[in-house]
Amino acid sequence: MTSTSSAPQTGTDRRVIALELEPGLICLKGLSPTRLRFEIEYGLERGTTANSFLFEAGPNAEGKAMPPVLVHPPGTSFAQPYLEQLAALVPADAPLKVVVGHVNPNRVALLQQLAARWPQLMLVASNAGAKLLQELWGQRKPSAPGSAPSEEPPLPPLPPLEVIKQELSWALSHGHELRLIPVPTPRWPGGLAAFEETSGLLMSGKFFAAHLCSEAFAEANRSSSEEDRRYFYDCLMAPMAGQVETVVERFEALDIRTIAPGHGPAIAESWRSLLNDYHRWGENSTRSNLSVALLFASAYGNTAAIADALAQGVSRTGVRVESINCEFSPAEQLLTAIRSCDALLIGSPTLGGHAPTPIVSALGTVLAEGDRGKPVGVFGSFGWSGEALELLETKLRDGGFAMAFAPIKVKFSPDAATLKTIEETGTALGRQLLNDERRNQRRASAGGLAESRSNPAVQALGRVVGSLCILTARKGSGENSLSGALVASWVSQASFSPPGFTVAIAKDRAAESLLHIGDACCLNVLAAGRETSLMKQFLQPFAPGADRFAGLELEASPASQPILPEALAWIEAEVKARMECGDHWLLYAQASAGGVLDAAGTTAVHQRRSGANY
């Protein structure tokens, strides 16, 4: 069975399709070919899916009548087509159990609509999830100062709540056995996974997800979504790698045959490889000796989105991030992180002119136990005022702490350009910590040469010559346009048919986030004898969010990529593959257009004496 329902013509093209997986089990799959919100997790701009699962009503193995059970309903972004599909499957007068695997204001808004249409609704949530549901159910976003409160229909009462404090199994209709597994993390304290034991279907929620729009239930092969799943991990899982590792180990004890996450296609063939990937990526995230403690609370998800962007930026440098949700983390974990970190970032929304109580408590611990020699940063979102951020900044400055950057204050939700600037702010902090560490190491070694620099193999590697190029990239349009550029000298032609080249890019380069599979770019090959001015332009330190092309006259390639007229030649290309190589990404790009700007010129090359640095 496959049926579909579309949203009305309101500027969106979101649909919901129903896929029968087996008798009595239907996947309700919300499809959005465009990004839902300007949050860093949607940065690849490949759309997304919202996957939920309906176990139909019927007698269980013991003959007991079981109501329909809905697992992982989506957010309100899919409300109209989702409710239409569900209404065709579940009568309005029927009891309906809903397993809420992730709680945020967007999900609560959809649950309120479910409660209005199905009066016999019952919600099932983890202990933390139930607490969040109770806190968020009656909340409405405040009206602007001076404006009359908007008249909205009354909210339905909060349905009865069944709280899952530890693993619990249900016998459902059609022989299905559903096990519910609490999987709390700092980013999603109310996490609740579901496992259908007879089919081996793990409905994992946020774990193993990818923001990728596909009508197919399962991915075609591992490579079709590998980059998307890695990107999702780096954005949201890496800052809490320790807790994620614990959850993955619990999943490994299950008799899995298919993993169906809350976003993206299911993984039916290569799920073992994906589990191994999560272990490997987690090891990379926890390897660094340096760490940044990221403390936050988030009422509507906006402060959490800022935290995600900061964490992504710091992680690009290889510095470890420890994410702590102050509302749900024990005091001992908070204290250990504050004492052991090399920098501390604290973020808060402003609610009724105040910071939430858990943030005020965390601030007190930072003032009492924090090291004044380590940098701190303040961030957060606000609606009509920002008193919480002013409180944090004032108390920390008065307490003798040095600010790592100017406080990040975002009204409502951050847009694409703001998120990019926030990410670069995190990267700048990570680089600062690494530079301080290297400086201390040089002092400890009395200025002696690093062992790697004197290694004959490393010296020989430095003799590999590369052409000097400026790699430029532009993505999006209008207000949401993002652009970047970097100096590249590790460039080589890689194929004749089709014509293509490889380029190695350090993970902490700002332009790296614009160079994923499917993205366009332009390789500007520099001319010998006149490369100095362009090198000076692009090697200067840029402040987060700064325009790399300020003051330059640019031309555009057919795909609107920046061309530098002073270059010797240019090649427009599309990124086709990425391979992780230690502290760099190796990109393979296929040429689609190009031109020689100076037929008489020669290529500028980069001569090095050591392979230990550029």
Please write out the topology.
Layout: E1 2-6, E2 15-22, E3 25-32, E4 48-55, E5 58-59, E6 65-66, E7 69-71, H1 79-89, E8 96-99, H2 105-117, E9 121-126, H3 127-136, E10 161-164, E11 168-171, E12 177-182, E13 192-196, E14 201-205, H4 226-237, H5 241-252, E15 258-261, H6 271-285, E16 291-296, H7 302-316, E17 320-325, H8 331-340, E18 343-347, H9 357-369, E19 376-382, H10 387-398, E20 408-411, H11 416-444, H12 451-454, H13 456-461, E21 466-467, E22 469-475, E23 482-488, E24 491-495, E25 500-506, E26 520-525, H14 532-539, E27 555-556, E28 562-563, E29 569-581, E30 584-596, E31 605-606
Overall description:
The chain has 614 residues and is an alpha/beta fold. The chain has three domains: 2-139 and 157-284, Metallo-beta-lactamase, Chain A; 289-432, Flavodoxin domain (Rossmann fold), CATH 3.40.50.360; 464-606, Pnp Oxidase, Chain A, CATH 2.30.110. Helix content is 28%, strand content 27%. The chain contains 14 helices and 31 strands. The strands form seven sheets. The protein has an eight-stranded mixed beta sheet. Strands 23-22-26-29-30-25-24 form a seven-stranded antiparallel beta sheet. Strands 11-12-13-14-15 form a five-stranded mixed beta sheet, with no helix packed on it. Helix 9 (357-369) links the parallel strand 18 and strand 19. Helix 4 (226-237) packs parallel to helix 6 (271-285), helix 5 (241-252) packs antiparallel against helix 6 (271-285) and helix 8 (331-340) crosses helix 9. The longest helix is centred in the C-terminal third of the chain and has 29 residues, at 416-444. The N and C termini lie far apart (58 Å).
